[in-house]
Predict the structure.
Amino acid sequence: MTTTNKPKTKKSTIVESQSTLLIKSNDKQSKVLSKDEIKFNQLVSKLESLEKKLISTEQLLDAKLAYYVKNITPIENKINEDNFEFIKSLNDCRLQKGSFTKGERAKIKDILMEELYHYVSIKGKDNIDDFTKNLYKELHGVSIDVHAEESFEQSKKDLEDEFARNGFDINLDDLKSDMTEEEMFNKFNEMRESLHEKFSNQNKKAKPKSKKQLEKEKKEKEIEEVKNRSIGTIYKQLAKILHPDLEPDEDLKIEKQEYMKQLNVAYKNKDIHTLLKLEMLWINKVENSKGNLSEDKLKIYIEVLKEQVKQLENNEQEILFHPRYQVLHDVVNFPTQIKSVKMDDIKKKYELELIQLEKSIANLKSTKFVTEVKKIIKLREEEDLYSNLFDIFS
């Protein structure tokens, strides 16, 4: 009689190595992992790599921000103080009769309006003196408060019009001029999510779903339901083991309090990666619990890990645009450049600007003021031309 040797069922175990949480084969005869096990390992490795990258990016940006505050902000403050002196000196030159043509005086006025607006924006409209307020009203024709509100409302209208031209009806009434940068950032994030939802709904209405799409959605819904049940099961299992009130040993009780905090945060955020680590750390200590993964459970973990990878990729981009790093945004053309910007070069640039500004002020107060004013007009025209070209190509 011929004996048929049944193939042994291969079991896989999640193991926590020094650097990552990976699946290793328990089958001594074969070290080959299944496609899903390989995919799981790839996602875990990518997730942990992204976590490290996010931390590294945040540390890099914080270091640049600290450098800016310590080494560049004092120079910037001095430039702002000197800008006030520059405005007063240039205005005195404007009032010199017979020194400039009508066209030159008009250009001087434009420069003063621009410099005043910039100065007030940095200083804050509540922190300026009467001279600045009066000069602002004289040149702009309205008070600073009125002009600021008008400018803000016009910017909102321009943004609404831009969206309308692209087929989106958006209402910006919730945006207020007295909002902080953080509040503005959060509000724009809400609007972005709302627009994304509207766009998705429009696409859904525009095209009837195919049988394949309906089947895909059904499968995704089933995975989501099983995924949530799986996360809940892990949480309940770990909560029983990690609950500090059930631990008589005082040292372990303190340790479990810390792990319980991590568990609650991970469950709230649906952080399957952290849950898996905690599961391996504690459940594997229980007899007959070897961390074996069924195929269904593995597929669920893969779907959740994919979502977390996508979220971390978004987070790495979003942090570059965070208002916390606004001062760094101001020294580059695009926020994505702040990781590579060299702060020493920025410092040298500000130092040179301060030297040139102080030299210009000295010339405006001397007998060379006519030559200096004409030089300022020419430089401003060149800057405006460059700015217009940059906007076109952008």
About this structure: Residues 1-20, 286-291 have pLDDT under 50 and may be disordered. The first strand starts at residue 12 and ends at 16. Residues 211-292 form one domain.
